[in-house]
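Structure (tokenized):
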């Protein structure tokens, strides 16, 4: 009988929480470290907005709008770090030690099995802080008489949908990167390379649309590796930096984000399957 994937995932989550609670001081220090990074990140942009009214001329990303964007980045980053990052880093170790053999023998999908065995609960505070920053900034925007913020309950499911699309895109990029461990033997620079790539999605896409190099980066990380839409589209749903209704290009980008999530997942699945064909077990 095939196991229930939900039950397997809940077992992984419970075991991870038990493991984290067995070393509570380490868990607390990880939470403090995660929160400290977020606070310093917030402080940096608070200083920047003391010297400028918006990021990107005419982009609409003024202080409160941008902090909605920043909160969205924290939420997505927290999801990726909590559920995927530790497992992706562990994948190369499974290959090196031959323990991937045991995963392949399990009566469950291998990609699922290597994607979720460890849940890093210490990264969740970032997501909670992000949600709090979004709510606070929305309240500030709604109280600003110079803004015409139009929100309804329908915006929340749209925001959550695009956050989910963003998390899927990030997961897909991570699976592709970690799959290279099968061909390379070891991929210890995964986190470093991941940081370099994802560093681009931490800012509104308008900052790249200014010069030749910027436009090249915008095109690459919007249409080739679609990480710019990961944070920009869900943040736009709530922040409405250019007001409502949405511009035609914003609607097209929103549709593209959903399509990119599906295509990214399919592509990462194909790369993972192809990589497994090249795997040589520890016994071979």
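Design, position by position:
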């Amino acid at each position: 009988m095939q196991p229930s994937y939900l039950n397997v995932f809940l077992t992984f989550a419970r075991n991870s929480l038990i493991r984290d609670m067995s070393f509570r001081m380490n868990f607390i220090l990880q939470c403090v470290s995660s929160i400290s990074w977020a606070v310093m990140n917030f402080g940096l942009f608070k200083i920047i907005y003391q010297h400028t009214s918006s990021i990107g001329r005419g982009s609409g990303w003024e202080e409160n709008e941008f902090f909605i964007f920043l909160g969205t980045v924290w939420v997505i980053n927290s999801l990726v770090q909590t559920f995927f990052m530790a497992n992706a880093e562990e994948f190369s170790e499974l290959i090196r030690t031959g323990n991937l053999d045991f995963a392949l023998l399990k009566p469950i999908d291998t990609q699922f099995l290597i994607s979720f065995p460890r849940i890093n609960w210490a990264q969740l505070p970032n997501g909670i802080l992000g949600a709090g920053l979004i709510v606070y900034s929305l309240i500030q925007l709604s109280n600003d008489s110079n803004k015409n913020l139009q929100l309804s309950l329908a915006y929340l499911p749209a925001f959550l949908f695009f956050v989910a699309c963003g998390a899927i895109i990030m997961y897909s990029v991570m699976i592709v990167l970690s799959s290279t461990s099968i061909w390379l033997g070891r991929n210890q620079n995964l986190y470093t390379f991941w940081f370099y790539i994802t560093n681009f999605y931490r800012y509104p896409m308008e900052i790249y649309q200014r010069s030749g190099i910027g436009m090249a980066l915008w095109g690459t990380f919007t249409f080739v590796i679609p990480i710019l839409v990961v944070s920009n589209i869900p943040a736009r749903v709530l922040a409405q930096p250019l007001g409502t209704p949405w511009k035609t290009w914003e609607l097209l980008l929103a549709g593209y984000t959903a399509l990119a999530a599906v295509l990214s997942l399919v592509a990462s699945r194909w790369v993972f399957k192809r990589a497994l064909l090249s795997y040589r077990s520890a016994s071979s």
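Reviewer-requested clarification: The chain has one domain: 5-277. The chain has a mean pLDDT of 86.
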